[in-house]
Design brief:
single chain, 208 residues, mainly alpha, 8 helices, 0% strand
Amino acid sequence: MTVFATIFTGTCAFLLVRAEATGSSDVRLFKMAASTGFIAIALSVGGLSNNYGRIVLVALVCSWAGDLLLTFASRSAFLGGLVTFLLAQVAYSAAFGVLGVNAAIAVVTVIAMTIIGFFIWRWLGPYVGDMTGPVLAYVVVITVMVVMAFAAFGAGAAVFIPIGAVLFYASDIAVARNQFVAPGVVNRMWGLPLYYLAQVLLASTAGG
């Protein structure tokens, strides 16, 4: 079941990228199919059987809702998507905390991510206008998620967790660039593969 769910998610993600590139009307269909696929992966590895997996499933369901909202072009839909993805990052952070925290790794990652976040905000900040509050809050929350992922890895968690967290962070740079800086299909061409790979990797760890 896990192999099938992974192949299904990957295939739908590929079809989504192709639909975006060609301007197809099937974008929403393929996007939601791919997002349903990563939930199926988490369920197939036993995500409901342990506390960590159940919290990861909450994060994945929030992500699913965010994906749906971002298929609409309105400002309110984008804001709703921002909120649901923020909740997903909070859930991921909580899940990683369940696995344990290596304090030394956490401190090093905080320093590294603060530096990275400073330069990202310096680039992005001038473009966000009256969305400064929500966007800045999201940057802080996803940064905490990455820190918690590395801290959990330092405590013995699977390597897919920090890899997935970093890929998720990178994919959100594509979303921000598309929404605020330079809209265009090229953002989705590299952002979507990173996003779905991130979710597949994180979902695959839900078995605990």
